[in-house]
Amino acid sequence: MRTAWQSVPTKLTGTVRKRKQFKNKELAEDWAELQRLGQKQQGEDFFRASNSEKRQFVECLPQLRESGIELREAVEFAIKHLKPVGGVKTVGEVVDELLKSKQMRFSRGDLRKTSIDDFRIRARRFSDAFEGVSIIELQVEQIKEWLIGLERGAEDDSELPLLRYRDSESCGAKPLSR
């Protein structure tokens, strides 16, 4: 039985010549034709991109390669995080959703009243601090700074009783003094 080889030249692949072995010449020619059509379609898609889109691609490609991220990965991540399915929500909206979830758990008996009350106070405070900020724009560093600010301003804060409880003997710690 004779085998047939087919190769696709480098000018079509853009890299190296593709070679593949088939059982017969007809299968080899069909494969080569599919490769040519695929390259033609890919080339047409490239030329449909605007000059601005091509420039952006060329500018971003070195950063993607350097970080080991493929273009498709970057695009999928960006779409998932910058255009989430439920839409972009503010910190306040997310906090409201969390409070509703906690309230449901409390209603089922899965949470104690003190737990939900404590969460409500802390979550509202967090929500007020980041009022109007989109959840996708909120950075870890912003949250860390806010938390550090809580520690510095605890003596002047309305949450001092909660901090005292957290650090009280009932939690195994020495109570705070005024």
Summarize the model shown.
The protein is 62% helix and 6% strand. The chain is built from eight helices and two strands, in the order βαβααααααα.
- Beta-strand content estimate: 5-15%
Instruction: List the secondary-structure elements in sequence, H or E.
Output: EHEHHHHHHH
As for the number of domains, it is: 2
Query: What is the CA-based Rg, rounded?
Result: 30 Å
Task: Look at the helices and sheets and give the structural class.
Answer: mainly alpha
- Across the major sheet, the strand order is 1-2
Characterize the structure shown.
The N and C termini lie far apart (94 Å). Helices cover 62% and strands 6% of the residues. It folds into two domains: 79 residues, no CATH class; 81 residues, no CATH class. It has eight helices and two strands. The longest helix is centred in the N-terminal third of the chain and has 24 residues. The protein is mainly alpha-helical. The protein has a two-stranded antiparallel ribbon with strand order 1-2.
